[in-house]
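Bug #77: duplicate submission created two jobs. Keeping one. Sequence:
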Amino acid sequence: MRSLRIAVLDEELPYPLTSGKRIRTFNLLSRLAERHRITIICHRNADAYEAEQAEAVFRKLGIDTVVVPRAVPSKNGPAFYARLAGNLLSSLPYSVSTHTSPELVEAVQDYAAEHAVDVWHCEWTPYAQVLRKALRGRLKRTPWVVVAHNVESMIWQRYAETEENPVKRWYIQKQWKKFEKFERWAYAHATWTVAVSENDANLIRDNFGGSEQTEVVDNGVDTAFFQPQREVERDPYRTVFLGSLDWRPNQDAAKLLLEKILPDVRAKEPRATLGIVGRNPPEWMLALAKATPGATVHANVPDVRPYLANCGCTVVPLRVGGGSRLKILESLATATPVVSTKVGAEGLRLRAGDHLAVTDDETRIAGALLEAMRNPDAALDRAEEARRLILREYDWAPLSEKLEEVWSVAVTQRVPRTRFSEPEA
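Kept job's structure:
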């Protein structure tokens, strides 16, 4: 395969590796940069030190960066709620409109004018709108790929189904329908769509016009980095929840753990404890954990492996989400047992009962955790079996080759098969 010039559009530089999205993007692009000329065009990371650190890392990898001096707006404070209200007048979902900045559109236009790009790569579905506005009529003659880390409309549908506040549910339903419309355009018109699981790929093919131009590049794990630490003694009564704590599905799961699941477990097993490990926990979560016996929040830790090494299992009580969970892959790569809901485990080629414990819904999680505490050897045996599968099928190296194949095919596929509509404002 000849070396390609790839322009990647993203919300920020994916470093440090503190979220599942960053982990995936970094691991795939860092490997492909050895064979291709990659440029990331993105907004500035909100944290200034993090932004400087990230640019240095990508320079060392040989990946060029074009960073516009504008961070994506935060999701708190009066201005956030004003933007939410303003979005009622837009045909685009909130996430799409706030990420489609004039600064980034201009940066893409300038880069396109100066460079012959082989493939434009939208690293998150909302960034298809940036490309749509920047290239306009030229987009129909341009090979471009969109990566669906999640089918966003499915997440919003699940938000609506679990939201109890009627006003919030009304607003969420509007976002759900807006995302359905936007994704139908993006997946049908991209030269190729990349899904992170076969479940999501089938949904895109069947419901969003993706047809045969959708490929799966699974989420993965760095199996050289995440290895069992067998010299560390596990505490079977210690449960860990991993995740970006500024992501709403993880916040919902953490709240469920603190308010319902952990108290139910401790009522029958007082030795049970819970560690919530992740970046940017909101103040309400810190306060709730402090008020919940047996719970501790470990915020913005440099390395999650010590927390995996000494716990009895990790728990994934998601009832909202899409894609597939890197937290499960990382846990099982270290031979750490996992207890999950069906939503948490979906999209992964893992068998309930053989590789991990899976419950029908979040109401049965407490019982599954108690079973893991009372029969730790059986839980560890499942995790060891799962680790063997992870080593065979989920290492980043072969997954990066699959993405490389998508780029190669996109270059040869000159015009998508569906008709383009005019860009929306």
